[in-house]
Amino acid sequence: MRAVLQRVTRAEVRVDGDLVGEVGPGFLILICAMAGDTEAVAAKLATKIAKLRVFKDDQGKMNLSVRDIGGAALVVSQFTLAADLRGNRPGFSTAAPPDQGERLYRHFSTCLAAEGVPVANGRFGADMAVSLVNDGPVTIWMDTDAL
Q1: Is 36 exposed, middle or buried (0-12, 13-18, 19+ CB in 10 A)?
Q2: Of 50, 85, 131, 138, which is least surrounded by CB within 10 A?
Q3: Is 94 a catalytic residue?
C-alpha cells in the first residue's frame, strides 16, 4: 500500500458539496491499495501510522503520535498514488482492482480505528473535494514495500 500522510490542524472531504468526513488535529491520509496487497499489509501500515511520532511535544520536538495527542485521521482513497510516470500520461495498472482496493481501504480504516485512532472516511470511488490545513507543513510518503 502507499500512503501520503499530512499532519493537519483540520481536514474535511466533500462529495457533491455534502460533507462526508472531517477531523480536527491529526492526519489526512491519502491511501492507495496496490495490486497484490493483503489485509496483513493494510494492518501493518495502520499500526505504523498510529505509532508514528510526528507531533510536537512540550519542547517543540516531534516526539508524539496521533494517539498521544488525542488526534484523529481522515482517510481518503487515492488510486493515483499508483501512478506510473514513464510517459506523459500516467498509468495506474499497478493499483489494486477497485473491489480489492475498496476492501483494503476499509480494512485499513478499521485497523487504524482498532489502534485507538478515531477515523473519518471519504467515499471510495467518488469525485471528492478535500480541504486541509497542513500543520508544519509535515507531509510523509509511505510505501509498505519500504517498511
Answers
A1: exposed
A2: 85
A3: no
- For the chain, list the domains and their CATH numbers: 2-141 (3.50.80.10)
Q: Which of 6, 27, 55, 79 is flagged as catalytic?
A: 79
Q: Tens-digit pLDDT profile for the chain (147 aa)? A: 999 999 999 999 999 999 999 999 999 999 999 999 999 999 999 999 999 999 999 999 999 999 999 999 999 999 999 999 998 999 999 999 999 999 999 999 999 999 999 999 999 999 999 999 999 999 999 999 998
Catalytic, out of 80, 94, 124, 139: 80
What is the C-alpha to C-alpha distance for residues 119 and 113, in angstroms, rounded to an integer? Answer: 6
Q: What ranges make up the beta strands (E) of 33-113?
A: 55-56, 62-64, 72-77
